[in-house]
C-alpha cells in the first residue's frame, strides 16, 4: 500500500514521528518532493516531528543514531489538539454536575487556575493531586451492609499499644523536685475487611482471610530472595571444604545462627525473632546459612583476601520489604568470630 502508484491520503500515528508506523512511512516518502507531511499540534523536543518543524528544507534529518534521511517533501503544521480547552471542560462539568472533580493531566499552574475557576463558578470541590499521590474524598452515599462473624471478631479484638514512659518534667511542668512517671496506653483498633456485593444479595463485609474462599481464587504471594554475605576474619583452618560446599568449616550452622540471633535481637527489640536451629524467622523474613557454592540469589563478588564470607539465604514477602533490607544492611556490616 505504501508504494502503490497514484495519490493517497494516509492517517498514521504517532503524530510526532517518534516511532511506529508513521515513522516507517516517513522514511520512504520524505525524499520525494511531491509528497506532503502534515504534523498536527505539538511535537516533543528531540522527536523527528520537532526536528522537521525547526529545519529549513531540503535538509538531512537524523532519524536515530545510525540513520539519516534526506527530506525533500513539503512539511505543514496544523493547529490541532485531541484535548479540549478550559471552556470545553467547564461546559462538560456544568452538564454532568458531579459531586467532585479531579484534574489528572496538565501543567500544574494551569490546573491550579482551572481548579479555582471550577470551585468559584460551579461551586464544586476540585482536586489536582500529583503523580503517586492519593486523594481522599468523603462519600455522601451510605450503604447498609451485613458483617460476617470473622470480621466482627477481628474488630472486637483489642490492639493495645503502650507508649513510652514519660515524666511530668518532660512536659515542661515541674511540679516538684521528684518527677512523677506515668504510662500511657491507647487502643488503636482497626478493622480491615472487604465489601462484597453479589446479585440479589445485601452487601456484606467480610474478613480479608475469607475473601479468597468466597471468590474461589488462589492467593498469590510474591517472595523475594537474596543471598547475603557476612564477613569472617581470615584465620588458619584445619578442615577442608567439601566439593560444592560454601560454608565456613570452623563455624557450624547453630553457631552462625546463634551469633546472628544475638546481634539482631539487640538491634530489633521491637520485633520477635525466632531461632529454631535451622533458620531465623523475623515476620515473613527467613534467614538460613547457604551451603551452595553457586547460589542463584547471590549478587556480590568474591570477598577480599583479608576475609572470607559466610553466605545466608534471605527470603521474605513484599509486605516486609523495608524490614528485610534493614536486617540485610546490618548483616553486611557484621563480622563473625571463629572463636
From TrEMBL:
Residues 69-129 form the Zn-dependent metallo-hydrolase RNA specificity domain. The keyword Hydrolase applies. GO terms for molecular function: hydrolase activity. Residues 4-52 form the Beta-Casp domain. This is Cleavage and polyadenylation specificity factor subunit 3-II. It comes from Solanum stoloniferum. Keywords: Hydrolase. The keyword Hydrolase applies. Signal peptide: none annotated. Coiled coil: none annotated. It comes from the Eukaryota.
Amino acid at each position: 500500500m505504501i508504494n502503490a502508484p497514484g495519490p493517497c491520503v494516509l492517517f498514521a500515528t504517532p503524530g510526532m514521528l517518534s516511532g511506529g508506523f508513521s515513522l516507517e512511512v516517513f522514511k520512504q516518502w520524505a525524499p520525494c518532493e511531491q509528497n506532503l507531511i502534515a504534523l498536527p499540534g505539538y511535537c516533543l523536543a528531540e522527536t523527528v516531528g520537532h526536528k522537521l518543524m525547526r529545519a529549513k528544507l531540503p535538509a538531512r534529518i537524523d532519524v536515530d543514531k545510525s540513520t539519516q534521511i534526506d527530506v525533500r517533501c513539503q512539511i505543514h503544521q496544523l493547529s490541532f489538539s485531541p484535548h479540549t480547552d478550559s471552556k470545553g471542560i467547564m461546559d462538560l462539568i456544568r452538564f454532568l454536575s458531579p459531586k467532585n472533580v479531579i484534574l489528572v493531566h496538565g501543567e500544574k499552574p494551569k490546573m491550579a487556575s482551572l481548579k479555582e475557576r471550577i470551585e468559584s463558578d460551579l461551586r464544586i470541590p476540585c482536586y489536582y493531586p500529583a503523580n503517586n499521590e492519593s486523594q481522599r474524598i468523603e462519600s455522601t452515599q451510605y450503604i447498609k451492609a451485613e458483617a460476617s462473624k470473622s470480621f466482627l471478631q477481628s474488630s472486637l479484638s483489642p490492639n493495645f499499644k503502650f507508649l513510652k514512659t514519660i515524666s511530668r518534667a518532660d512536659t515542661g511542668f515541674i511540679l516538684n523536685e521528684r518527677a512523677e512517671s506515668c504510662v500511657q496506653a491507647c487502643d488503636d483498633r482497626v478493622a480491615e475487611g472487604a465489601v462484597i456485593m453479589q446479585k440479589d444479595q445485601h452487601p456484606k463485609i467480610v474478613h480479608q482471610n475469607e475473601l479468597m474462599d468466597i471468590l474461589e481464587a488462589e492467593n498469590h504471594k510474591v517472595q523475594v530472595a537474596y543471598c547475603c554475605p557476612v564477613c569472617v576474619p581470615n584465620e588458619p583452618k584445619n578442615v577442608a571444604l567439601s566439593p560444592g560446599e560454601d560454608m565456613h568449616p570452623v563455624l557450624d550452622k547453630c553457631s552462625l545462627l546463634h551469633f546472628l540471633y544475638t546481634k539482631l535481637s539487640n538491634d530489633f527489640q521491637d520485633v520477635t525473632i525466632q531461632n529454631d536451629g535451622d533458620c531465623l524467622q523475623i515476620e515473613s523474613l527467613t534467614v538460613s546459612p547457604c551451603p551452595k557454592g553457586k547460589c542463584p540469589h547471590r549478587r556480590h563478588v568474591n570477598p577480599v583476601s583479608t576475609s572470607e564470607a559466610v553466605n545466608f539465604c534471605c527470603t521474605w514477602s513484599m509486605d516486609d520489604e523495608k524490614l528485610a533490607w534493614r536486617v540485610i544492611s546490618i548483616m553486611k556490616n557484621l563480622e563473625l568470630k571463629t572463636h
